[in-house]
Amino acid sequence: xxxxxxxxxTPWYSDFAQNVKQTWQQPEHYELYVPAIxxxxxxxxxxxxxxxxxxxxxxxxxGQDRWDEKGNWHGLYLMAFKDSYNKWEPIGGYGWEKxxxxxxxxxxxxxxxxxxxxxxxxxxxxIPIPVLLPLASVGYGPATFQMTYIPGTYNNGxxxxxxxxxxx
Length: 168
Fold this sequence. Notes:
The protein is of the alpha+beta class and about 170 residues long. It contains three helices and eight strands, in the order H-H-E-H-E-E-E-E-E-E-E.
């Protein structure tokens, strides 16, 4: 009896792996990612640094998603954009958001969740770096404005990054 109760509880990483696998094998939509803005928190940077940083992250990405039985979003993505130094930065991973539909119109939704993946930067010699970041979104129909915040220290990190996600 104790064994069956223990076996019924799956560890978080098993659920995570299953969600990644299911999103990879059973996508419902494909998605175009279009980076929109990076903003360096002015309270956390010297002005001379923010004056030199790029805050227009030109680039694009591609992904696939699915919606689970609870109405939550799962996505796999690859994106490349111009970073703070105007150098190319790739990022890829898995994202999950708990979705709320606060209005009678089911097309409007709000999301809150996380992304787990890897990125690589020119100033770090393009060595892959794992990322675990928060996600938030506002969406209507096939279009979603999604965002994250990269925490950091003074003159490092503390960046708001947002993009558009279009399902097709």
